[in-house]
Amino acid sequence: MEVVKTQMYLKPEQHRALKSEARRLGISISELLRRAVQEHLDATSRTSFTKSDFLGILDLGRSGQKDGSEHHDKVLDEAWRSGALR
């Protein structure tokens, strides 16, 4: 595994907590931090929808398109690309 050295500053209580958790898991603090960073990146890379996103989807029914229910994937894709769902 290729890694990049990174330096950071922690509060003493953060360092103690990380050290304790790493010891409990049987891994290094570095590995614990790598896992935490990856978990954060995985969580933030998922698409999340807001209430207005869902309301925008409901508004698509008022688009005047007669075949919206038959071709909903196309309608949603067009709405997404146009920015109507953002």
Notes on the protein architecture:
The model has no long low-confidence stretch (mean pLDDT 81). Helix 1 crosses helix 2. The protein has 2 domains: 12-45; 51-82, no CATH class. Helices cover 59% and strands 0% of the residues. The chain contains 4 helices and no strands. By secondary structure, the chain is mainly α.
Give a quick precis of the structure:
With 86 residues, the chain is an all-alpha fold. The chain is built from four helices and no strands.
Instruction: Estimate the strand proportion.
Output: under 5%
How many strands appear in the DSSP assignment? 0
How helix-rich are the residues, as a percent range? 55-70%
Mean pLDDT: 81
Main beta sheet strand tally, sense and closure: none
Return the string of H and E elements.
HHHH
What is the count of DSSP helices, taking H or I runs of 4+ residues? 4
When the domains are counted, the total is 2
